[in-house]
Amino acid sequence: MKGLSEPIKRYDFDEKVEGRARYCSDVYLEGMLYARTLRSDRPRAKILEIAIPPLPDGYFIVDKDDIPGKNSVPIVYDDEPFLAREAVNYVGEPILLVVGPDKQTILDILAAIRVDYEDLEPVLTIEDALNCRENFIFQDRPHFVEYQYTKGDINGAIARASCWLEDVFRTGYQEHVALETQSVLAFLEEGRITVSGSMQCPYYLKDALVQALNWPEDRVRVVQLPTGGGFGSKEDYPSIVGVHAALAAVKSGRPVQLVLERGEDIRCTTKRHPSHVHIKSYLDHENNIRARDVEVLIDAGAYAGLSSVVLQRLIFSVCGVYRVENLRVHGRAMATNNVVCGAFRGFGGPQAFFAIEMHMENIAQKLGVDSLELKKDYFLRRGDTSSTGGLFQFEIVLPQIIEQIEEISGYSQKRKELSGGLGWRGIGCSVFFHGCGFTGKGEKDILKTRVRLVKRSASEIEIRVANTEIGQGAATTLCKIVARALEIPVEHVAYIYPDTDLCPDSGPTIASRTIMIIGKLLYDCALEMKEKWREESLEVARGYTYPANLSWDNARFIGNAYAEYSWGANVVEVEVDPLTLEINVLGVWAVYDIGTPIDERIVKGQIDGGLVQGLGYAGMELLQARQGRLQQENLANYIIPTFLDFPPIVSRLVENPYENGPFGARGLGEITLVGAAPALALAVQNAVGKPIRQLPVSPEYLMELMCDE
Amino acid sequence: MNRVQFVLNGSEVNLPVHPLKRLIDVLRDDLHITGAKEGCGEGECGACAVLVDGRLVNACLVPVGSICGYNVVTIEGFRQSSRFEILKDSFEQAGSVQCGFCTPAMILAAEALLSRNSHPSEEQIRQAMAGNLCRCTGYTMIVEAVQLASRKGAGLW
Fold first, then answer.
1. Which of A361, A355, A387 is nearest to A374 (CA)?
2. Which side of chain A, N or C, has fewer Cβ within a 10 Å radius?
C-alpha cells in the first residue's frame, strides 16, 4: 500500500537511544526494598523443615503462609503454586522470598537458610514419564494433556498403502534470553496494590494478583514499563514474580523491587519445549503420499502452564504446508520434574516444522526425486482444507513465495551443483506457515477482547489497549494504523504503556495477534471515530466478533484452528568444517507473506531478529537437563548468536493482503522464527549426507552422526 | 570507608564506597545513572558497557577502585555530543533499536570503534562489537547504522 508501508521513526526511539527509557530496574522509589528468592535445589522432594537465621531489623521472609488468597497461578490449569506448598517439583521452584533494604545482606540471609528435604523419585525425561505408573506429578496420569485428531479415512488409507516411511525427530530446550531479565516493582497506594514492570500480558498478572491476594479487582493495578524483550518469556512468568513482589510489598508496607539475575532467569523461567516427533507417511503404488500418522511428545516440565496450548499449535502445524487427505495426529504433554516449559516465539511451530520438513526431505531422497519438487506437488491451495479440516478461504501464495526465494537465493541451481556427494557444503529450503491469533474461538470465548480509542482533541488521539510494546514495534505500528484510518498525521496519535486502570483488556501480547487482531479492532474504531469526527472529544470501543465464515469444534479439533495464516520459505546455505564439524552459515534468504507490511523497517527488524533467534535454536543454543538440573546456566555456556555468527539476511515480501487484517496485514512476529531450523538442518544434511534428526545441530551431534558408519 | 574519585560525564565524582564495589552498582545504585543496564553481571552481554578513557569496558567487571582518576562516559554524557547525534540518526534510519535494552551500550560500542577506526569494514564492525549481545535485531541493522554513521560523520571521528 503506497505510503503506508514506508518506514517512520519508531514511537519509542528517542527515549531508548538516549538511554532515558526507564526499565523496571532503573526505577528507584523512596524507601524501596529489594527481594530475592530462595529456590528449590531438588528436582522432587518434600520440604521437611526450613531453618531461618535470626533476621536483622527491617528484613522479612515471605512464604506460602503470606498468601491470603489461592496459592496457585491462574492459567489453563491452576496447578502451579506461587510459592512452594509442602513439596517442590523442579530445581528452581520458588519457596520463599527474603526482603530488605540491602542487596548483599539479603544474599547473606539467603545463604544462611537451611532447607531439609526428603527426596522423592523424580521423573527426569519423557521416557521416564512414559514409564510412570504411580506417584504421578499431575493428578492421576503421567501427562498434563493428551490430544488426538483425525482427518479422512486414516485406517482405510493405511490398509491400502503399499509402503511407509518413518522418522523420529528430537528437539531440545531453548531459552529466550530477553536482554532484560524478569523484573517487577510493587507498591501500595491508598489501599491499592500496583505492580509495574517488564511484561507481555498485564491482565494475566492482574488476574494472578486478584487470585493470590484475594483482593477485589478495583484494588489491583498493573502497569507495564519499557520492556527489554519478551519472546514469550514474559507471557506467564511475570504472574509469578509479580505476585511475589506484591506479597512482599503488602507485608512490608514498602515498595519492593524484584529483579532476577541472569543465572536465576535461565534456571527458573519457562523454556521452549523439548519434543519427540514420530512421523509415519503411507504411500500408494504410484508413490503418492496418502496418509500420515504422527505421534508427538513434549516435555512440559513440572507444571501444566501453557503446555496444552503449545501442544495444540504443534499438532495443528505438524502436517506442514502439504495436502494429505488422511491424517491421525496424537500428542501428549508429559509431566516431568524439569523446569516448566511455556511460551516461546513460534509456540510449538518450530518443533513441528523441523519434523515435517526433514521428513519430506527424507521421503524425496527415498523416492529419488528433488525435495522441493515433491513439496510443490502437495502445497496447500485455496479451497483445500487444513489438517483439522478448516477451509482455506483465501489465496495461498506459496508458488509466488517459492518463485521469489529461487530468484534471490538461486536455491535449485545451487542444490543441483551441491548434490554431488560429501562436499561439506549444502543448501536447504523450508516452507511453512504460522496460524495468526488464538487457537480456534479463543479470541472470542477465552479473551473477550476489548479495545478503546479516545479523542481528546483533533490532534490528540489515544490508543487504549493492553497490548505491550516489547521491542517488536507494536506502538509504532498501531499508531500508524489509527492515523492512516483517520487520515491524520501519525504524530497526533499516542500509545501509552498499558495500565489496567486506563486500558481495557485487549488480551495478551502473544500469538502474532497484536497487529492482525488488535490493529484491526483499532482500525474499526478509527473508522467509527472518523464518522463522528465533528465531536470535540469522544471514545470509541470495539470487541472482537468471531467471523461468520469460520467454525471451530474445540472438543474434537475440527474446523478452522486459526482465523488466518502467514506463509513463508527460508533458504540456508552452509559449509561444514570437515575437521571440527562446526557449521558456517554462508547465506540466509527469506520470503514471507505477512499480508501488507504496515512499516517495512519494523517488518525487516522482525524478520532479521526472528531468523537469527531461529538459527541460534537450530545450530547453537544447547540447553540440557541432567538429573533435573540445567547444565547451562549463564551466557558463557548457553551460547546465543553474536554479531559474528550469521551473514546479512536477504528477505522479500509477497504482498497478499488479508481482508480481515488492518490494511491487509497478517501476523508477523513468530513466523520469522519457525522456518529457520529446518532450513539450516536441511542444508547440513545436504552437506554431510547424513539424516539430521535432532536440534540443535551441534558439532558434537554431527560427530556422533559421522562416526555412526 | 575509602573514597573513590573519578570523572563521570565531565564532572568530578568523589564517593565513600568500597573500592571493590562494581562500577555498575556505583553508577546505578549510588548515583542513579541508569543508562548502563545489567544484562548478565558477568561480562558476557555488554549491556552495561561504558567508556573508560575512551575504551569500551563492561561496568559489571570493573571494581570502582581500579578506575580512580579515570574519565568515565555513559550514555547520559555521550548523548550531549555531536557524534551521538550522528549515531542516533543512523540508528533510526537503519532500524537498529527494538527493545532498547542493549542500545545505550551499542551506541557507546559504536563510538569506541569509530573513534579508533573512522571507516571500519563490515567485518571490522562485527568483530569490534561482538561483545555486545542483542536478542532482537539479528545485528545486521546495527552494522548498517555504524556504516551509515561512518559515512555521515566524516571528519567527526
1. A361
2. C
Burial (0-12, 13-18, 19+ Cβ within 10 Å), A253: exposed
Please give the residue of chain B at the shortest CA–CA distance from A345.
B136
Is residue B52 within 8 A of residue B24, CB to CB? The reply is: no
Structural element, H or E, at residue A452: strand A450-457
Determine the residue of chain B that is closest to A26 in CA distance.
B34
A-B Cβ pairs (cutoff 8 Å, strict): 155
Distance CA A530, CA A524 (A): 10
Distances, alpha carbon A516 to alpha carbons A84, A231, B10, B151, in Å: 39, 18, 48, 38
CA distances, A637 to each of A125, B42, B64 (Å)? 22, 12, 27
User: Which residue out of A179, A227, A607, A640 would a mutagenesis test of the B interface target, given it has the greatest number of B Cβ atoms within 10 Å?
Assistant: A179
H-run or E-run covering A425: strand A425-436
- The secondary structure of A660-687, three-state, reads CCHHHECCCCCHHHHCHHHHHHHHHHHH
Sequence-separated (6 or more) residues with CB below 8 Å from residue B56:
B49, B50, B108, B109, B112, B131
Q: Where do runs of H (alpha helix) occur along A341-397?
A: 349-367, 371-378
Q: Which chain A residue has the Cα nearest residue B76?
A: A19
CB atoms within 10 A of CB A392: 17
Residues facing A428 on adjacent strands = A572
Which residue on chain A is closest to B133 by alpha carbon? A642
Question: What's the grid cell of residue A127?
Answer: 521416557
State ipTM. 0.99
Candidates B90, B96, B136: best to mutate against A (most CBs of A within 10 A) is B136
- Mean pLDDT for A419-441 is 89
**Which of A643, A644, A645, A651 is the best substitution to test chain B (most B C-beta atoms within 10 A)?**
A643
Q: Contacts of residue A23 in chain B, CB cutoff 8 Å?
A: 34, 37, 101
Which residue from A193, A184, A186, A210 is spatially nearest to A67, judged by alpha carbons? A210
Q: Is A227 on the interface with B (CB under 8 A)?
A: yes
Alpha-carbon span A80 to A656, nearest angstrom: 43
Distance between alpha carbon A650 and the CA centroid of its chain, in Å? Answer: 24
Please answer yes or no on whether A17 and B107 come within 8 Å at the CB atom: yes
Which of A469, A453, A543 is CA-nearest to residue A506? A543
Which pLDDT value is given to residue A709?
A: 60
Please tell me the predicted confidence (pLDDT) of residue A443: 85
| Angstrom distance (rounded) from CA A28 to CA B31 | 11
Question: Please, are residues A209 and A68 in contact by the beta-carbon 8 Å criterion?
Answer: no
Q: How many angstroms away from the CA of B155 is the closest CA of chain A?
A: 23
Nearest Cα of chain A lies from the Cα of B5 at a distance, in angstroms, of 23
Q: How far is CA A533 from CA A463, A494, A525, in A?
A: 16, 17, 12
- Whether residue A21 and residue B132 make contact (CB cut-off 8 A), yes or no, is no
Instruction: Let me know the angle formed at the C-alpha of A276 by A273 and A281, rounded to the nearest 5 degrees.
Output: 135
Sequence-separated (6 or more) residues with CB below 8 Å from residue A662: A481, A485, A515, A516, A519, A520, A522, A523, A598
Question: Chain B contact for A251, CB < 8 A?
Answer: no
